[in-house]
Input
Amino acid sequence: MSEADGILRVRQPIGVQYRWSAGPNATSHLQGLIEGRLIGKRCPGCELVYFPPRNGVCPKCARILGADVEVGPRGTVTTFCIVNVPFLGQKVKIPYVAAQILLDGADISMQHLIQECEADEVRIGMRVEPVWKDRSEWGPTLESIAHFRPTGEPDVKLGSEAGAS
Amino acid sequence: MRDVAIVGTAQRPSQVETNLTSVELILPVIDEVITKVGIDRSEIGFWCHGSCDYMSGQPFSFVAAVDAIGAWPPIVESHVEADGALALYEAWVKIQTGECDIAVVFSNGKTTSGPIDRILTLQADPYTVAPLWPGFDAMSALQAQACLDSGVVTERAMAEVASRSLADAKTNAIAYAKGDHSVDELLARPYTVAPLRAHDCGLPVDGANAVVLAAGDAARRLAKRPAWIRGIDHRIDTQRLGARDLTESNSARVAAQHAGVGRDKVDVAELHAPYTHQELLLRSAVGLDANKTRINPSGGALVANPAMAAGLARFAEAAEAIFAGGADRAVAHCTSGPCLQQNLVCVMEGE
Amino acid sequence: MSAQSIGALSGDSFVAPLEVAYPYKRTVGTTLSRFFNSMIEGRLEGTRGSDGKVYCPPAEFDPITGAALTEWVTVGDEGTVSTWAWQSEPQPDQPLDRPFAWALITLDGADVPMLHAVDAGSIDRIGTGTRVKVRWAADRTGGITDIACFDLLEGARA
Ligand SMILES: [Zn+2]
Output
């Protein structure tokens, strides 16, 4: 409460506990992350490969995604930003690079961290690979991967299709 | 005014708990209704969705839901943070403007992801009511007690509503709670939030549904017997429970007058009454005689209450009664907010 | 928003407990500020509606005509139950942690009732017409929870 102008400001926290379900179409993807594998899903209509499999549907075709497809592990940076702003819940020391990465064999990019290089060395088209955490820390989450790092391969010139995500 | 009709519906069988995401819940009913009606997605001029982010536990979950409808090439779509029946009202207005002839309306309610009674309480006044966390059932119980005190309902009449609804649900594949239970058996059960018993409160389930609206010639092309919307009206009472006469529903009465319910006989009425006493209040407010009108032959929201989809379900059920020829004139109703705060009333007719 | 656990397979899907919580700080405006400030001082005030009815908590605008309401009336800390419900199993964050009654309570001098909890002890001690009295919270900071709950008055059942 404060009353600088006679107007009260009152704390009114609200909170709700949920049982959050990822949905059956995300199961193989999440199980893969427990096992150190990168599994996406192919749309039976347009044949695009989704990693991650979003909500289990292809938004372009409005169809439930079909077969599992192993992708990566290497990929290409499609865009990135350098985070200099501290915020609530931040887990990584600033400045750091958050990038969209198009894994080899996937058709949509995913977001992850780029580390093991200076922030100003990161560029669109850079080839990167995942650095997994210790096997004991693997779970049904992309946080099983600590970050991505440069592979040293030549850059890839991206077509317009790669930016889509 | 343009003639607009419901020409097809699809509903997902209710489940007490599903692992499906909202998108996975919605997609099959969209597919089903489009296939049933026999339209191409390119013919759909407007999509309108009803749901509640607080129930999903995910801010902007309605944006993700667009994945379920195929937004490529780009579509025209909208969302109401409310029951799908209010999305239907928006779609009806959109068609009236002449901007489109065919619209798909859909809704989903995943009531089992979180504590639904607490979540719905967030609709209450945020300064003087919500900080007490009274619960949606308890607010409804305050209304039920006021009705009992005034004599407009009795506990026996409430149990009769539950008994009839559970029996009717036996023939409804979509319903969840169903069975033969005598009034005396129901009255012997304990109170949950007195004066309400468990069967006085709609059963929270996960569900989804979709309907197709079409104008004029498009409607005649798509359905053998379209359910023509002859009147539709939405009214709201004050949020302040104490300032309302809780023993009647003023907004439902006014909405029913404007929708033209009383102009002719009503064969079937699907009233969205998540509590037994509310069906009794609504019958009176909407102007229905239970001896002349079949009330909630589907079992209503008591036997399956996917919040945010249970109102649109009433529209789907009323339209199906017209499609099947069992009714020439039907009323569909949706409520929202504590103690029947908001009411949408619609009259449909077959030709 | 945070997932407390990264989840586990349950049937065909991974599920996880998830808490969504917002630490809102609300500006309550001029009318409710006066109401809550007077409650901090142990006094209840309401506003008079266009039809002469007194609202406590105060209405900022008349629910029927929409007119801004500016006439203030001090009301009593005792009142009468106009309807009630019995919370046999109290839920998190509710005013009491033992079975209690919810009630709409018309404070003496007011016409429009307010929602609050009554520490009635058992269901047979509450009814429409029951007389109740405010129990103030020990530490008042501005808010409807500055009323801890209502207590029954002697010979409460009317
Ligand atoms: Zn596709």
In short: The two ends of chain B are 18 Å apart (CA to CA). Chain B touches chain C at residues 19-20, 57-59, 115, 117-118, 126-129, 131-135, 138-139, 141-146, 149, 191-196, 238, 240-243, 246 (CB under 8 Å). Residues 22-37 of chain B form the longest helix (16 residues).
